[in-house]
Design goal:
single chain; mainly alpha; 11 helices; globular
């Protein structure tokens, strides 16, 4: 019990450290919060007029759950950059030399990034309400959708931490961006997979991001969450299974990689 209390205390301290960085450098945090708002304007207003929703419905109501999930996906870059920067500057080595729980470095980063994701999601929800989007499924269903979005973000935090510990170079975030953008756009966030060519549509249907988006559309009561595929019919189940699977794989890998760091 003492060991657990020590680990939690150290994790809280390092969470506070990450939050203090955002307070001292607010520009970076504000850009991260406002970039998804720019996506709402671009896709909802500039391109939305040319989009149709399968089965009918307002495109912005179709779009917003996809952008909520995209906001969670884009956050993996910030996680990677923060961990890789601490490694490159020797901060992580200093932490390893201190009498502190080794898990605190990872849990502190995960907690801070999850809080930032919650703030970004709150901004997106407010933006959605301003442009006419509405959660029509009731408050409990909307809360469940928010929970699924944060679960996806937690899974991607584990992925981002592992990749940062593996590559260890802040500039390698470009490689991650090359992977993140296709993941986001090869999904049902902007259009339904049924409108895509066969193989691409199948890939989009089974994209973990698509499961979260489809489940959120259903829970929010927004158009476009249906479909005939197994992935579409069991979207809510997959929206839980995919993130838990990613966490089960990448969390142990992150812990093992951290313990093997030189120095």
């Amino acid at each position: 019990m003492t060991t657990l209390r020590w680990a939690v205390s150290d994790g809280v301290v390092l969470t506070g450290r990450a939050l203090a960085h955002w307070v001292r450098q607010p520009a970076q945090a504000l850009v991260g919060l406002l970039f998804p708002v720019l996506l709402v304007v671009m896709f909802g207003y500039l391109l939305g007029g040319a989009m149709t929703v399968p089965g009918g419905g307002d495109y912005r109501e179709f779009l917003l759950p996809g952008l909520f999930a995209m906001t969670m996906v884009f956050g993996v870059e910030a996680t990677y950059a923060a961990v890789a920067t601490d490694l490159a500057r020797g901060v992580t080595d200093r932490f390893r030399s201190l009498p502190m729980a080794s898990s605190a470095v990872l849990t502190g980063r995960a907690a801070a990034d999850l809080l930032h994701a919650a703030a970004a999601l709150a901004v997106m929800l407010a933006c959605g309400l301003l442009v006419g989007w509405q959660p029509r499924g009731g408050l409990p269903a909307a809360a469940a959708a928010v929970g699924l979005l944060l679960l996806l973000r937690l899974a991607l935090i584990a992925v981002g931490i592992h990749l940062a510990l593996l590559l260890r170079r802040p500039e390698s975030v470009v490689v991650l961006q090359i992977l993140v953008w296709p993941l986001g756009f090869t999904s049902n966030a902007f259009v339904e997979p049924e409108t895509m060519p066969g193989a691409l549509g199948a890939l989009a249907a089974w994209n973990p991001l698509s499961a979260t988006v489809a489940a959120c559309r259903e829970l929010f009561g927004n158009p476009g969450w249906g479909g005939e595929s197994f992935a579409a019919q069991h979207a809510t189940t997959l929206a839980v299974v995919w993130p838990l699977l990613l966490i089960a794989v990448f969390l142990p890998l992150s812990v093992r990689r951290y313990r093997r760091l030189a120095g």
